[in-house]
Specification:
By secondary structure, this protein is of the alpha/beta class. It is 40% helix and 13% strand.
Length: 275
């Protein structure tokens, strides 16, 4: 999935925005000290949080320059940095998150059976785990459960299910979207979120898409959103909130045999910037 961001840029993610009249400045982020004479030891957890810190710094600089931070990342944890950049000490409570994903990413080190750090990203964002490391991300503060909408989810571990049931996260399951349609399934959750915040970070794990439509990665499963539904979801969010930042994550081009994902990303981006 680490190959995904560069692939998306090569296949039009930046040029699509330029075609709509926007200036685009693309920069690559590596772990802190990666190119130094004595690079730090590489560990999954330490290296990942190093990248999240860099994302926060760069995204904050983009916001300070009145630009919209759009993060293309191999893993979902980059949203920790993007959200940290969207908040300030005086306005942390005014930033919510709309998290689109086939998976809940709500495990903690005590519940995970795989040890996959990315499966804990939303739990970390809401302050359930990795507090010392998230505390090292400039500007980071946990997002309140009630300020999170988790949508499109359909592949949840039993332990995650228990954590979600005990939380105040507003979960809009893929089966509800298929049954009731986007306006009726997602609309009320967004309206409730609008009563709490005016700005959101939009997180798109690209396996939120139905695997029969576009296979984003090896974890993709059936029953997800169509390409049109992803664009419409982005439009619904952008019409209700100021978009503080976006993240498109977890795309493995080697799995996407039809190369359908770049068009999905460009459709969602266009929906955001033209709404």
């Amino acid at each position: 999935m680490g190959r995904g961001p560069a692939y998306l840029l090569r296949h039009g993610a930046g040029s699509a925005m330029r075609a709509l009249g926007h200036e685009v400045d693309a920069e690559y982020i590596e772990p802190s000290g990666y190119r130094s004479a004595n690079p730090p030891a590489s560990t999954e957890i330490g290296t990942s949080f190093s990248i999240y810190r860099e994302v926060a710094i760069r995204a904050r600089a983009a916001r300070d320059a009145d630009a919209l931070p759009i993060v293309l990342s191999g893993n979902c944890g980059a949203t920790l940095g993007a959200v940290a950049a969207a908040t300030s000490t005086a306005a942390q409570s005014d930033v919510g998150v709309v998290w689109l994903d086939a998976h809940a990413d709500f495990n903690t080190p005590d519940t995970t059976s795989s040890g996959f750090l990315d499966g804990m990203a939303l739990a970390a964002l809401t302050g359930r785990c990795w507090r010392t490391l998230t505390g090292g991300i400039p500007g980071f503060a946990p997002v309140a459960d009630a300020s999170v909408v988790l949508a499109g989810v359909r592949d949840v571990d039993p332990a995650e299910e228990e954590l979600l049931e005990d939380s105040e996260v507003n979960v809009v399951r893929a089966v509800s979207i298929r049954g009731a349609g986007l306006p009726d399934a997602l609309g009320p959750a967004l309206e409730a979120l609008g009563g709490r915040v005016s700005r959101v970070h939009l997180h798109v794990d690209l396996d939120v898409l139905d695997s029969s439509v576009a296979r984003a990665n090896a974890f993709a499963v059936p029953g997800g959103l169509s390409l049109a539904q992803l664009a419409e979801t982005a439009r619904m969010v952008a019409s209700r909130f100021e978009i503080a930042s976006l993240a498109f994550t977890a795309y493995d081009p080697a799995i996407d045999m039809e190369s359908a994902i770049p068009a999905a990303v460009m459709g969602a981006l266009e929906a955001v910037v033209t709404t």
